[in-house]
Amino acid sequence: MLGVGYWMFLPVPHLTRDFDYSLPENLIARHPPPHREDARMMVLHRAARTIEHHGFRDFPSFVREGDLVVLNDTRVIAARVFSDDDRIELLFVEEVRDRTWKCLVKPGRKMQPGALVHVRDVPGVVKEVCPDGERIIEFRGTIDLDAAGEVPLPPYLEREVEPTDAERYQTVFARERGAIAAPTAGLHFTPEILARVPHTFVTLHVGVGTFRPVQVENLADHRMHAERYRIGPEAAARTNAAERLLAVGTTTTRVLEALGRPFSPCVGATDIFIHPPYEFRVVDGLLTNFHLPKSTLLMLVAAFAGRDFVLQAYAEAIHEQYRFYSYGDCMLIL
Q1: Where in the sequence is the domain holding 121, given as residue range(s)?
Q2: Residues 60 and 193 placed together within one structural domain of the fold
Q3: Per residue in 223-247, pLDDT tens?
Q4: Looking at the predicted structure, is the pLDDT value of residue 4 above 60?
Q5: Burial letters for 97-109: b for 16+ Cβ neighbours within 10 Å, e otherwise?
Q6: Per-residue pLDDT reduced to its tens digit, 90-120
Q7: Are residues 53 and 90 in the same domain?
Q8: Does 19 share its domain with 106?
Q9: What is the CATH number of the domain that holds 60?
Q10: Which end of the chain is less enclosed by CB atoms within 10 A, N or C?
Q11: What are the two backbone dihedrals, phi and then psi, of residue 95, each rounded to the nearest 5 degrees?
Q12: Measured distance CA(94)–CA(74) in Å, rounded
């Protein structure tokens, strides 16, 4: 294992391989803990470069007067659907207009322009193949995803969806339908813990970029998929008034940093890609899960706390047997 001192003298990271690490398979959390608040929570203090070990139940004790906890209230849709003949798997990414969806499909070779697919007896025609491989499919009726589909668990869980996932892969405050992946840092909250901290909600619908690895070596060449966001009047007013903003998750962070202070009520889309040496404008603290190697999420965390410190923390998390990824433990960075 490389020592902390080694990382401190590396140049500013700009290559995908700079964010790699090795994770034992047994530390991938393939199922959620028995209770949401059971997660462990590693606490990183950036100024002192110290690490503490807590449980998520301690989170409210780190929220001080003048703080505001900002969460993403997007709701995961049952976006994973199979055609009526079970030959095509579709991921309904975004409804681009009435009854017309942008979808990821497998196998792609069967879904060229003009191809026909049936979902719950509703026919759909492939109208276009997008540059990144997504299909624009026009359906001749409304698709009831709640009846036809299931929540699209991340592929790295390597298991089928189970009945409990319908609840546990949603936050307790999820309300704005539109995501194809959960804002996983929010999965730890219970109504009781949420009631103990001052908070507000923004919305960012987590999109297809969550499932796609960085495929370029130089970070300057990577382009994020745009994701839709919304910040309402109450959230704008409260974030402007707060002394310190604690963002729950990388998705919340991307909304806040894309907009910047002063916040105004708005709806839009952002493709902001946060990686070192990004200088944060508004986020003062970050609650986040442990992310995949070489992922844009890990790059954002490294930009916030410093790559050397984050990789040191990940090495300690592995040593201490923390659980990783969507259903895993979390990290609070202050």
Answers
A1: 80-148
A2: yes
A3: 888 899 999 999 999 999 999 999 9
A4: no
A5: eeebbbbbbeeee
A6: 999 999 999 999 999 999 999 999 999 999 9
A7: no
A8: no
A9: 3.40.1780.10
A10: N
A11: -85, 105
A12: 14
